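Hi support team,

I've been running sequence recovery on a batch of backbones for a student project. Most finish fine, but this one hangs at about 90% for roughly twenty minutes before it completes. I'm not sure whether the input is malformed or the queue is just slow. I've pasted the structure tokens below so you can try to reproduce it. Let me know if you need the job ID as well.

Thanks,
M.K.
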């Protein structure tokens, strides 16, 4: 993503996990570590996805160290796709390795939002998350976690009005029982083509 991007090899439940770390510019107040999950591995999702890169840029711009990683079986990550179960375990393991303490943010796009939601819910009692950003949340395809009420003011949910991969109605069906607000991008599709600068600005506004 930039000249300072650092390649990492971390430990996952099925072997090594490939990851990238981007850090804020020197002199910027440091705010914590953000771990970002990519879309579905079986449909071409990787840590180099444009939405995932946009999320990383937004976090870095706001003083967070951003960690993107490839789920098991993707790129240089060992193992095979595990339907979300192993992927949740891997993300929890990664958090323990790259952010064992201090401020923590989780983010995800599509399938990655499902994984990030499950990780946040699982960890909350021992490790509350400072910021949670869910984009294109795959609520029609996976069991996206119900978030603790204390997480709501720290959570940003963004969805495209015209998403034909995950219908907006499915996200509202997930969010409604929680009274969790959803930010809708007018005319936006699942991959936010032509609207990545707007997506980034929405995330930056939330983080600031």
């Amino acid at each position: 993503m930039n000249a300072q991007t650092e390649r990492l090899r971390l430990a996952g439940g099925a072997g090594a996990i490939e990851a990238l770390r981007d850090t804020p510019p020197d002199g910027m107040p440091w705010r914590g570590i953000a771990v970002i999950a990519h879309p579905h591995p079986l449909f071409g999702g990787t840590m180099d996805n444009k939405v995932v890169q946009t999320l990383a840029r937004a976090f870095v711009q706001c003083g967070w160290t951003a960690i993107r990683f490839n789920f098991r079986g993707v790129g240089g990550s060992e193992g095979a796709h595990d339907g979300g179960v192993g992927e949740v375990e891997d993300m929890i393991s990664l958090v323990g390795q790259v952010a064992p303490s201090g401020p923590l943010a989780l983010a995800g796009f599509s399938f990655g939002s499902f994984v990030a939601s499950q990780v946040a819910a699982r960890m909350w009692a021992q490790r509350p998350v400072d910021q949670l950003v869910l984009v294109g949340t795959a609520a029609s395809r996976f069991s996206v976690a119900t978030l603790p009420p204390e997480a709501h003011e720290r959570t940003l949910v963004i969805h495209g009005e015209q998403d034909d991969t995950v219908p907006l109605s499915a996200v509202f069906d997930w969010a409604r029982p929680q009274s969790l607000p959803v930010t809708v991008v007018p005319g936006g599709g699942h991959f936010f083509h032509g609207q990545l600068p707007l997506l980034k600005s929405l995330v930056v506004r939330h983080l600031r």
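--
Follow-up from support: It reproduced on our side and the slowdown came from queue contention, not your input. The chain has one domain: 6-207. No action needed from you.
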